[in-house]
């Protein structure tokens, strides 16, 4: 990033070439506007953030305690406030990303209204949300730099060189709000060409990391629901290639691909691939197909399929809709094959969709993958679809049972009950939840932890809390106590919502353009002055 003085020097050189005709242009203002618009295109963002992810992945390989995190968001403002909050509380955005959830786009962004997570929403909504998120993050940069420019002006007004240097140092060391976004492309919204075209739009909007799942595109289901149908590896690898070509075409050579497998909970396939040689990838996929051994053609009925497997003939088990069933209890083995194959064919990170947050389960799969690909790394969905409280209380209960501890005060199936909230078992479960991400990073190869739908739930919870009292007896006091007073006490910049929306940036631009004739909004009658 250029320094303030470097931008000033460049601006002066440009103005000098124009003689007197550009005398109304101030080099200070040019420098400021350029610094506030460092990322001019989505591709600038994608290249910048891809390098961040690659550096973070390398740091994790050296030290698994250096895992990364993100929260899902469905609106630019939500993403902006998360990164502002991270900078406020931790002084750095290192290791913190944003996650763009296809589930939340379907539920909250579709013109059809709320939809289930089945790729029925408009595919254009995905790159549109990426662009929106980065528009808000860039505006956060402009707003914060705007305040630093005011500090510089004040320092210049005092004539104190030390104060001026300190103000310039803050500007030159400014940390951007631009962070990587892991963007969900579902199953690609069509064939490999459709995946490529949508990937390009996502990358052009700023995505440095695209997450792709191995379900059938037109039968896609939420990863935590039933009815999932997976595709053969050759189909999935073609889509991985499509995403990689999109990155390379657009010059984002560090682009990151997350290969997600839903095989653990998927019991069906739509297609039996053609094996070219015994033991090839398609043959391995077909080995998981469930079926009945056929010794005579008389055992076949009209429309039945026949699959040659080794020295046997198998009639695959098919549903009435034509889908083919996998053998029971093969999910883990299919996950391992999926993951190894994806990493060996262009994917960078893995996502294993699980039915519960269980450290030993995740570690057991990752350890098998790492026997073949030693540096395999996971993105793990810390999903709100899991009942975290019940799962971990039951895990503690089971561990204590194996240890022979006294469990008569507890009923395993009722451990969600509030009566256990202050119990020793609940405290131990909470401690394990608290350390889950750290432990999974160390023991189960999880490079990145995300929560897919946090703001969906926080919005519902906070709205319920406010509505209950505002429309009840507290009236306006409910808003003042629960919202505004808390914003003030906790130092949330958003309490000055006019400034957050860009009013002060606009005032400065008016001054740049019109000088003393500028009609500004930030005068003495602006009620935002009440907030100091």
From TrEMBL:
GO MF, any single term: isocitrate lyase activity
Name this polypeptide is given: Isocitrate lyase
The entry's keywords: Lyase
InterPro entries (UniProt xref): ICL/PEPM, Isocitrate_lyase, Pyrv/PenolPyrv_kinase-like_dom, Pyrv_kinase-like_dom_sf
Presence of keyword Lyase: yes
GO biological process, one term: carboxylic acid metabolic process
Gene3D superfamilies the record matches: Phosphoenolpyruvate-binding domains (3.20.20.60)
Pfam families tied to this protein: ICL
């Amino acid at each position: 990033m250029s320094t303030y003085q470097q931008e000033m020097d460049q601006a002066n050189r440009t103005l000098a070439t124009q003689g007197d005709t550009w005398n109304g242009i101030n080099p200070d203002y040019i420098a400021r506007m350029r610094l506030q618009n460092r990322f001019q295109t989505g591709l600038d963002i994608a290249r910048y953030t891809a390098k961040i992810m690659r550096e973070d992945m390398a740091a994790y390989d050296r030290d698994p305690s250096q895992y990364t995190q993100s929260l899902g968001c469905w609106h630019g403002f939500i993403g902006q406030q998360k990164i502002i909050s991270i900078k406020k509380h931790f002084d750095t955005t290192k290791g913190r990303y944003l996650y763009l959830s296809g589930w939340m786009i379907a539920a909250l962004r579709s013109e059809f209204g709320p939809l289930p997570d089945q790729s029925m929403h408009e595919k254009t909504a995905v790159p549109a949300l990426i662009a929106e998120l980065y528009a808000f993050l860039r505006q956060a940069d402009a707003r914060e730099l705007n305040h630093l420019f005011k500090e510089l002006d004040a320092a210049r007004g005092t004539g104190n060189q030390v104060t001026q240097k300190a103000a310039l140092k803050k500007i030159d060391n400014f940390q951007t709000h631009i962070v990587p976004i892991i963007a969900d492309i579902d199953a690609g919204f069509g064939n490999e060409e459709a995946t490529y075209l949508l990937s390009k739009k996502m990358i052009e909007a700023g995505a440095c990391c695209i997450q792709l799942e191995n379900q059938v595109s037109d039968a896609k289901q939420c990863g935590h629901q039933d009815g999932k149908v997976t595709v053969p590896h050759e189909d999935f690898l073609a889509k991985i290639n499509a995403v990689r070509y999109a990155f390379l075409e657009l010059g984002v050579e560090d682009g990151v691909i997350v290969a997600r497998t839903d095989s653990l909970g998927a019991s069906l396939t739509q297609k039996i691939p053609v094996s070219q040689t015994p033991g090839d990838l398609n043959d391995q996929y077909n080995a998981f197909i469930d079926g009945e051994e056929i010794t005579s053609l008389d055992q076949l009925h009209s429309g039945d399929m026949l699959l040659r497997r080794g020295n046997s003939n198998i009639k695959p088990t098919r549903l009435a809709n034509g889908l083919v069933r996998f053998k029971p209890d093969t999910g883990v083995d299919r996950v391992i094959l999926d993951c190894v194959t994806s990493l060996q064919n262009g994917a960078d990170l893995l996502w294993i969709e699980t039915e519960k947050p269980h450290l030993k389960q995740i570690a057991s799969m990752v350890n098998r993958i790492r026997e073949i690909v030693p540096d395999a790394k996971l993105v793990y969905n810390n999903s709100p679809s899991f009942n975290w409280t019940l799962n971990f209380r039951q895990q503690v209960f089971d561990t204590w049972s194996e240890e022979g501890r006294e469990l008569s005060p507890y009923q395993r199936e009722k451990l969600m009950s509030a009566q256990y909230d202050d119990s020793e078992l609940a405290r131990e479960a909470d401690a394990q939840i608290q350390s889950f991400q750290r432990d999974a990073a160390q023991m189960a190869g999880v490079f990145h932890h995300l929560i897919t739908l946090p703001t969906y739930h926080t919005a519902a919870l906070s709205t319920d809390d406010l509505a209950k009292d505002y429309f009840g007896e507290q009236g306006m006091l409910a808003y003042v106590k629960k919202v505004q007073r808390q914003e003030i006490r906790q130092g949330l910049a958003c309490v000055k919502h006019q400034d957050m929306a860009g009013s002060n940036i606009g005032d400065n631009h008016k001054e740049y353009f019109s000088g003393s004739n500028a009609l500004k909004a930030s005068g003495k009658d602006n009620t935002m002055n009440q907030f100091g």
